[in-house]
Amino acid sequence: MNAIGASRRIIPVRRLVPLLLAATACQPDSRERPVECIAPANAGGGWDLTCRAVGRVMSQLDLVTGTVRVTNMPGAGGGVAFAHVVTRRTGDPSVLVAASPATTLRLAQRQYGPLHERQVRWVGALAAEYGVLAVRHDAPWHTLDELIAAWRAEPGSVVTAGVSAVAGQDHVKVMLLARAAGIDPRHIRYVPFDGGGEALSALLGGFIHVFTGDASEIGGQVEAGRVRPLTVFAPQRLSGPLADVPTSGEFGYPVEWVTWRGFYVPAEVGAETYEGWVSRLATVAASPEWERVRITYRLEPFVMLGAEFEAFVQRQVDTLRVLSREIGLLR
To answer: Most CB atoms within 10 A, among 81, 189, 216, 319?
Structure first.
């Protein structure tokens, strides 16, 4: 299966209890000082949302002192923030950094130069959204099969677009679909945009043919009848505006792409500080405050913490490295 994600998951409360209890015993030094959450991009994107939403709930639950300060640090697809933490904040107990598969993909492709995934500690993920493929409401393709047929006949005739750079996650997910359909991924025409709004505007304006992004980016356009989703890259159908949209697996192309929303911290913070961060995220995950935030932003349940998350990230980097070689993005 062409999957870099994991099935939708919720950690049962009974599994969170040990982590919740540890929250009172493992309070990191940052409990006594203001917390900074670094969003490795400009305001308004997924990393920024992750910092602001989780930081707000942490403050509401009194898990931090005062409010969480969000620092936007764009550049190199998260590389500027990663390098900043690795070189200048190595033991800082008060810094938390938002991450997603965009981070692990760039690490897998060695886009951060000599820096690697083991130079930070991966704390956990609290929610996710899944990849989607959509066209304008009046596009000639009404199903994924029809789009695939057009691609096979003339791969260069269909222009796709997303938010990530070339070789980024929006590009890779459609390349994986092409490969699963027997189309040379290198023949897929992909155009990167700076934001989901710009990419959707290009779709509605007829400048591109297919939007490849995340499900939450198109919900409003689907409800308004301006965009037709063809498939979701999820293990099962989603809820909400995309509830009737088939998964790519239903068409015979088992491609999954889960965009988890999580965090890492500097590598040298110490075991007690690291476990304290894990405990905080466990508290957030189990709270009704976070459940309301998740539903508001149309995020799917996805909770993975501590050692389990660290192992998951390492497996994902390894998998993405292999996939990047197979589809011609990495030598």
So the answer is: 81
Count of beta carbons in the 10 Å neighbourhood of residue 147: 24
Collect all residues with Cβ–Cβ distance below 8 Å to 118 and sequence separation of at least 6: 267, 314
Q: Which of 10-19, 40-49, 69-78, 111-120 has the lowest mean pLDDT?
A: 10-19
Q: What is the DSSP letter of 246?
A: P
Q: What was the pLDDT predicted at 24?
A: 39
Q: Mean of the per-residue pLDDT values for the chain?
A: 89
CA distance 50 to 63: 16
In this prediction, residue 201 has a pLDDT band, given cuts at 50, 70 and 90, of very high
CA distance 310 to 301: 18
Name the residue among 10, 38, 94 with its Cα closest to residue 269: 94
Domain 131-256: state its class. alpha beta
DSSP-based three-state secondary structure for 61: coil
Domain definitions of the chain by residue range: 2-128+259-326, 131-256
Phi, psi for residue 116 in degrees, rounded to 5: -140, 170
Rounded mean pLDDT, 191-206: 90
* Residue 15 scores a pLDDT above 80: no
Can you read off the two tokens belonging to residue 74?
Answer: 């764009």
Residue 287 tokens, joined: 């709270």
For 2-128+259-326, which CATH superfamily applies?
Bordetella uptake gene, domain 1 (3.40.190.150)
Buried/exposed 267-284: b ≥16 CB within 10 Å, e otherwise? ebbeeebbbbbbbbbbbb
Residue that the structure tokens 């991009």 belong to: 41
Tell the burial category of 79 from Cβ atoms under 10 Å away from its Cβ (0-12, 13-18, 19+).
Answer: middle
With bands split at pLDDT 50, 70 and 90, how would you rate the model's confidence at 45? confident
Using CA atoms, how far residue 285 sits from 180, 213, 241, 288, 301, in Å, is: 35, 25, 24, 8, 9
Longest dimension (CA), the chain: 62
pTM assigned to the model: 0.83
User: DSSP E strands: which ranges in 109-193?
Assistant: 120-136, 159-162, 189-192
Other Cβ atoms within 10 Å of 325 Cβ, number: 13
